[in-house]
Amino acid sequence: MIFNASKISKSYGTLAALSEVDLICQQGEICGLIGANGAGKSTLFRIILGLIKQDSGSVEIQSSSPKPIGGIIEKPALYEYLNARENIKVFSEIQGIKVSAKTFNELMQEVGLSPDRKDAVKNYSLGMKQRLGLAVALLNNPDCLVLDEPFSGLDPMGIYSFHNLIKKLSRENKITVLISSHIVGELADLCDTLYVLSKGRIIKSGFSGEIYNSSVSSYKLVGENFPDMRELAAMHPIKIQGGYLVQISRKEITGLLETLINRGTRITACVPQSDLKVLFEDKT
Q1: Distance between CA atoms of 71 and 102, rounded to whole angstroms?
Q2: For residues 197 and 105, what is the distance between their CA atoms, to the nearest angstrom?
Q3: Does the pLDDT at position 238 exceed 80?
Q4: Residues 195-216 pLDDT 10s
Q5: How large is the angle between the packed helices 126-137 and 101-110, nearest 10 degrees?
Q6: Which domain holds residue 259?
Q7: Domain check: are 52 and 144 in the same one?
Q8: In 3D, which of 147, 150, 113 has the Cα closest to residue 130?
Q9: Cβ–Cβ under 8 Å, residues 72 and 134
Q10: Which of 119, 121, 65 is nearest to 91 (CA)?
C-alpha cells in the first residue's frame, strides 16, 4: 500500500463536507473518485495535498521520494504570461530544486509537449495547459498524483489523449494516481478501482468495471433493419439517430440482441448507458 486516507471528516459550520471517508490506493494503481458537483471531491483532494486540514482522520503516504505527492486541483495554476520553460523554472524554485535543460526537455516529452515552444502559456489550448500542469505536478518525481477533474472542458480527443498519458505514467513509472470526475464514463476505462462519493460519504467502491456495470440501466443500439420496436414497449424504446435507446438490464441485453439478429437486424454498436441516479443510490 502506498496511500491510505482513513476516516477523513471535514465540516464547514453545520455543513458536513466529508464524513469518515476511507480511500486506499496501491503503488501504480489508478483510483477514480466519482461524485456529483458538490459531493466533496475537491475538499478531499485538498486535504490529501495538505492544502486544508481535516477535522478528524488521517492521511498516510508510504514514500521515500523528496516529494511524496503532487497534484492539480481543478484548473492548473499557471503563470499565463510566461512560457512553459519559465513556468517550470518558477515552480521548481518554489519547490527548492533546479531543473536543467536536459531535465526540462525530458519532462516536456513525457507529458507530450514540445520543449521548443517559446510563446506564452495563454496561447495554449486547455489540453496543453493540463499537460503543463501535470509537468509541474511531476517535478521532483512524486510517487503519487492527485488530479481533480482534469478532463473538464476537454473535447473527446483531448480526453482520450490525456487518458493515455495517465496510463503511461502509472504503468511505466509506477506512479499511483488518484483522479476525480463527475462523469463515470470518463473514468470507467481508465481506473483500476472506483470510489463513489455522495454527500461527503463513500457509498460504493470496487473494481472499476463492476462499479460501472452496476450503474448501467439502458443501452444504445445502432444498426439497420430494426423490427417494429413497439413490440418491445416494456423496454421503452426511444428512436435515436441510427437506432434505439432501450431500457434493459445487463442480464437481458444478450437475449435482446439475439432476438433482433434472428429477425434480420444488423447491429453495428451496442453501447451501455450509465444512470447516475443508480450510481449514486446509497443502499447503506
Answers
A1: 23
A2: 38
A3: yes
A4: 999 999 999 999 998 888 888 8
A5: 130
A6: 216-279
A7: yes
A8: 150
A9: yes
A10: 121
Tell me which amino acid residue 30 is. I
C-alpha cell at 233: 414497449
**Residue pointed to by grid coordinates 435515436:** 240
Other beta carbons within 10 Å of 239: 10
Q: Is residue 284 part of a domain?
A: no
Record the pTM: 0.82
pLDDT tens digits for range 11-59: 999 999 999 999 999 999 999 999 888 899 999 999 999 999 999 999 9
120 contacts: CB under 8 Å, gap ≥ 6 = 80, 81, 82, 83
HEC string of the chain? CCEEEEEEEEEECCEEEEEEEEEEECCCCEEEEECCCCCCHHHHHHHHCCCCCCCEEEEEECCCCCCCEEEECCCCCCCCCCCHHHHHHHHHHHCCCCCCHHHHHHHHHHCCCCCCCCCCHHHCCHHHHHHHHHHHHCCCCCCEEEECCCCCCCCHHHHHHHHHHHHHHHHHHCCEEEEEECCHHHHHCCCCEEEEEECCEEEEEEEHHHHHHHCEEEEEEEEECCCCHHHHHHHCCEEECCEEEEECCHHHHHHHHHHHHHCCCEEEEEEEEECHHHHCCCCC
CA-wise closest residue to 193 among 175, 180, 206 = 206
Strands 193-198 and 201-207: antiparallel
Last residue of a domain, one of 212, 235, 253: 212
Q: Considering its fold, how many domains does the chain have in total?
A: 2
- Residue tagged 481508465 (cell numbers): 190
